[in-house]
């Protein structure tokens, strides 16, 4: 009888380890890395994004790319979650036992009217979901953590896509490794150097050291610590945060942080005259070209 099966309170350590392994394995298969998602979104509407960039609408390009990339991710996450939930019964004893009993009961209920069969199915669906709720909860936690990490990585990949579109040389910590950055006394807060690590070693004041954060909150203080620790002249802090206080901007400017924000943020009256705040259009079309021109003149 179905009433003999008690709802599961929490996963055993053994099941938790096994379930985590399943989630990790299937996530790699069914959810593309942020870089692939960004490139796929661009390829789906290449002409549109090229028009935006050719018109200099970089902030708009970033916002739309991020929105579309997130939608693609949610589609993949829904497929992934469905696959995980469908495999619980074949891999874990209690869900398997319950689903077998439900299947047997439904098979014996085929003579019921459509309405009665629907009600019985709904009841069993709720019963099954209740029993496996610890699995659902654990999967939800995993998805939440993945989304938080994904947001930052997707923003990074959008910026790297733009560097490549404009043919700007750069070294990213995600590609050349943390060790390569630590060798030049740069920590994990630094995401990229333009044009390169080699250029930084030769003349650090003629490079762009960048850090990327989707939202600032108090995390910008990590950048302050990095400037002090690494003896950097400044850091370009790239963000898509649309809730930035004037006080925070003042504090950042005092620590030689150049904030790169969306155009709509820079155009706000409280930021329009702030030299320490620039928009993505200025960053990509004025600031970086000046640095690249310098290194070009050096034949490097």
In CATH terms, what is the architecture of the largest domain?
A: 3-Layer(aba) Sandwich
Radius of gyration from the CA trace?
A: 26 Å
How many distinct domains? 2
Mean pLDDT: 91
CATH topology of the largest domain: Restriction Endonuclease
CATH class of the largest domain: Alpha Beta
Helicity level = 55-70%
Structure commentary:
Helices cover 66% and strands 8% of the residues. By secondary structure, the protein is of the alpha/beta class. It has two domains: 8-160, Restriction Endonuclease, CATH 3.40.91.80; 168-297, Restriction Endonuclease. Helix 11 (220-230) links the parallel strand 3 and strand 4. The termini are far apart. The model has no long low-confidence stretch (mean pLDDT 91).
